[in-house]
Design goal:
There is one protein chain. The strands form 2 sheets. The chain has a 6-stranded mixed sheet. A two-stranded antiparallel ribbon has the order 6-7. It is globular. A hairpin with a 5-residue loop joins strand 2 and strand 3. The protein has 2 domains: 3-39; 50-169, 3-Layer(aba) Sandwich (PvuII Endonuclease, Chain A), CATH 3.40.210. With 174 residues, the protein is an alpha+beta fold. It has helices at 3-13, 23-39, 50-62, 130-136, 150-156, 161-169; strands at 65-66, 76-77, 83-90, 110-116, 122-129, 139-140, 145-146, 158-159.
Amino acid sequence: MNDVSNHDASQAAALPDVSRLSVKNLLRLEASVVRELRRRDLVRTNNKPLGDIAEHVVWLARGGVLEPNSTKSHDITTASGHRIQVKAMANRAAGSAARFSPFRSADYDTAVFLVFDAEFDIVEAFEVKSDLIEENVRFIPHVAGRQPSLTQVRTFGTDITAEMQAAYAGIDAA
């Protein structure tokens, strides 16, 4: 083995056993890795598994079926047939002007919005009826959808923070 291979092997042996980390600590570790890759100019985005985690949290809270990724308009269908679209963001410097990812379909009943802080705790969660999004969030042609701001979500939504925090607290047991 050459020196580079020996170095890589010794570094791999020093890696932590991530199978023992909580979901929150896995997200923190992932964020630190992305920050370092950005510092090295190796990646250009902060794409994260946060959206998938958010969907799982809402599914834990509401039950039903977590739809396949290919489902266009919603992420969860409850036992009563209620269709939920899930959106998430990490708390950003833009504050309440920060925008969630766009809605490109209105074929859902409600949307649940989760806001995570820098430590990946859920600090805000709101549920908004689809017709309120359709009526109050303008269509943006270049994103081909409606992209609500955190301010709009706070204005039109029902605060469900405690419910989502409780579900998130149980994610490692699920």
